[in-house]
Amino acid sequence: MTFFSAKRASQGFPTGLAYLLASMFFLTVALVLLRSHLAIATPAFILLIPVVIGVVVGGFWVGVVGALLGFLVFDYLFIPPFYTLSVGALQNLVSLFVYVVVVVLVSTVVSRLKEAQLKAKIYGDDFYRLAQTSQALIGVSGLEPLLAKVTDSLANNFGYLSVAIFLPTETGLEINSPSGKALTQKEISLVVPDRPRPASLFNLETEDGNKLNVLAMETLSHPVGLLVVKGGTGSPHEIELLKTFANSAALAIDQALLREKARRTEELEELDNWRRALLGSVSHDLKTPLASIKASLSALVELGDRLSPSEREELLTTSEAQTDRLDRLVSNLLDMARIEAGGFRADLQPTAISEVVDSVITSRSSFKPRIVLDLAKDLPLVLADFTLLHQALGNLVDNAIRAGSDGGPIEITAKQEGDLLKIFVSDSGRGVDKSRWDSVFDLYEKGKASQGSGLGLAIAKSFVLAQSGQIGIVDGAAAGITKLNGATFFISLKYYDPTNSEILESSS
Fold first, then answer.
1. Is 230 helix (H, G, I), strand (E, B) or coil?
2. What is the Cα–Cα distance from 100 to 360, expressed in whole angstroms?
3. For residue 88, is it left (φ>0), alpha (ψ between -120 and 50) or beta?
4. Residues 464-504: pLDDT tens digits?
């Protein structure tokens, strides 16, 4: 029996004794009043009733008390001579003997039936709680929440003082998700002695006199850990119950460990893909400015005075422009890495889109003749980080410049849609296949490097998401945004509402 079951069973004796005494008293009074009209055997049979009641309520030992009490009452009040314990005639002695035998037999039979019924109910209740506890494990995602659910459910449903799980690590067994009263260091030393394999230990005595049970949680193929329970009765039934639960918990924990391992493997695979894609994109994006810088500097060194002032100026201008491009790329990479690592938070402030667009065009003055602006009048301010938005929009413009390498126009459009302000960048290139509208912003697509998008779009996505915005591609011609046949990228941000002070507070 478990702690709750044993406690419930121990409460039956005083209640049964009370029922026995009360019913014995009232029946005895009634029988004494009718004594002159009754045969000598009649009180013997009627006095069985209190004994049966006491046994049903309180168990066998109440029946023993009832047999002794009934013997005295029957002899003292109903066997002549009355009011003495003298038996008198032999037939009275036989009647008394038969009464005692019948009472003992009835008490034994009734108590065993009652005990079987009580045990069945206790076992049923225990297994119902076990089923509830096991059911609670279903659907719990994540190893830590599952371990906490195991220990808390067992402690709450069965009333144990302490419940803990020990899982193997590289350095040995380690306690996880303890529930209830904390285990002492001495109790932990009992649980984790120097053994190569976790083993079950039952009914260990603790310093405070409680039982400590250690159950190995094992699957069919390997051990998972140890389930440690303090308190309870330590009965065989309780041990079997705990074994059943330990096996059920072992399967759930093992599955959680496998899912955790699979998740880590997937994360490592994603990280490896990201690393390879990053190296590929970085090498691609770094080679172009580095090659231009090297070619310009080599020409300056090798040709020297043979270059005209205008040629020298052109080479220096090219080197400076490519150096600036390289500086922007490295800065963007560092910012993106900080954002992805959670070490960077956007400084969201009311921002005018027109100022961001002007800043982007100014920093790309050599391409200004190709850029066509279509900004709606009276555009509201948006909640954005000026620097991040400038870099994200600039990357979209750079991508449009590369896409329209034949010198075609680039359109920048901005308009309000509901509570969002959208900025569109359209180019005159070949466009992007619709199947790649989502993956084009990633450093890699599943199993292969991103096809020529470089770092710019991935960085732009990271910067926009850091501002709680959205980035994507639309069919610009079909949406009536542009007449160009290339790709149309967009950035959408919530406009700034000066009446909503919570927006700025949440971004601070």
1. strand
2. 108
3. left
4. 988 889 999 998 888 888 888 889 999 999 888 777 655 55
Nearest to 53 by CA among 10, 120, 118, 111: 111
Per-residue exposure over 150-170, b if at least 16 CB sit within 10 Å of its own CB, e if not:
bbbbbbebbbbbbbbbbbeee
Question: What does DSSP say about strands 488-494 and 470-474: parallel, antiparallel, or unpaired?
Answer: antiparallel
Task: Give the best-scoring range by mean pLDDT among 121-135, 140-154, 355-369, 449-463.
Answer: 355-369
Select from 3.10.20.90, 3.40.50.300, 3.30.565.10, 3.40.50.2300 the CATH code of 349-507.
3.30.565.10
The Cα–Cα gap between 262 and 264 comes to: 5
Structure-block tokens of residue 151? 């220990």
Domain extents for the chain? 3-133, 291-340, 349-507
DSSP, res 379:
P
Spatial distance between the Cα atoms of 153 and 163, rounded to a whole number of angstroms: 9
Which two tokens mark 334?
């560092």
In this structure, what DSSP letter does residue 451 have? S
How confident is the model over 144-171, as pLDDT tens digits?
888 888 888 778 877 888 888 888 887 7
Residue 385 CA, chain-centre distance (Å), reads 34
